[in-house]
Amino acid sequence: MKIERLGQDKIRIFLTFDDLLERGIQKEDMWREPPKLHDLFSEMMEQAYNELGFEAIGPLAVEVFAMPAQGMIVIVTRGRSSRDDQLLEEDLDEELYEMEVTMEQSDIIMYAFADFEDIVSVSKQFKSSGLTNSGRLYSYNEKWILVFEPDSIELNSHHAIIALLAEYGEATSVTYAMLEEYGKIIIADEAVQQINQHFTF
Predict the structure, then answer these.
(1) Quick one: what percent of the chain has pLDDT higher than 90?
(2) How many whole angstroms separate alpha carbon 100 and alpha carbon 107?
(3) How many other C-beta atoms are found inside a 10 Å radius of the C-beta of residue 61?
(4) In the sheet where 184-187 sits, what is the strand order?
(5) What residue stretch is flagged as signal peptide (predicted)?
(6) Could you read off the pLDDT of 110-126 as tens digits, one per residue?
(7) Burial class of 15 by CB neighbour count within 10 A (0 to 12, 13 to 18, 19+)
(8) What is each CA distance from 170 to 35, 111, 120, in whole angstroms?
(9) What is the pTM of this model?
(10) For residue range 120-170, what is the model confidence (pLDDT) as tens digits?
(11) Greatest distance between any 2 Cα atoms in the chain
(12) How far is residue 85's CA from residue 140's CA, in Å, rounded to a whole number?
């Protein structure tokens, strides 16, 4: 579980599928098991407090982005409440938050790479395995991010593509909307094919 602060009242939590499995949560449970998710959310809020001093008090807006290739991103935004300044120490053990939850699912595959050489290597592997020539390449926060739309990938090669991406890169906690807004597009179409054409060694 990775937690980062996006602002004074906003944090982002990234959980891989391994994180979820460790807690007994399957991918399907994210949509139909409120008690398990409630326990998970309590654990996330406790870790956010311990690591960042972020208190889950008052109204919270919770956005959950489920991404089959990467895991789950949870963005928590704390609203202001008139109770904020009146809380007593003994109240902290009680549940003090009201949640408004928005859930979205995205089949877009996104993996981040620290070095451009890793992008070249994974592209070569795609070519030799006959997997894909598609994809878009972005630059974001000093990392390279390869993005694949689900309709550009054959169903039977989905797992092989994710396995190769995971070998050279890492699942990213950035949402696609954030990447579109703040990332810089380097190769807009057929990124794998173009990399293979221009980088040979």
Answers:
(1) 20
(2) 23
(3) 16
(4) 170-171, 109-113, 143-148, 136-140, 184-187
(5) none
(6) 899 999 999 999 999 98
(7) buried
(8) 30, 6, 15
(9) 0.61
(10) 999 999 888 887 778 999 999 899 999 988 776 776 677 788 888 888 988
(11) 65
(12) 38
The number of residues making up the chain comes to 201
Contact present, 92 and 161 (Cβ < 8 Å)? no
Which tokens hold the place of 25?
A: 């949560």
| Average pLDDT taken over every residue of the chain | 79
For the chain, the domains span 2-105, 109-198
Fold of the domain built from segment(s) 109-198: Alpha-Beta Plaits (3.30.70)
φ/ψ of residue 51, rounded to 5? -85, -40
Nearest alpha-carbon partner for 74 in 111, 99, 94, 53: 99
pLDDT at position 101 over 70: no
The pairs formed by 16-22 with CB atoms below 8 angstroms and a separation of 24 or more are 16/70, 16/71, 16/171, 17/71, 19/71, 20/71, 20/72
Strand pairing class (58-67; 71-78)? antiparallel
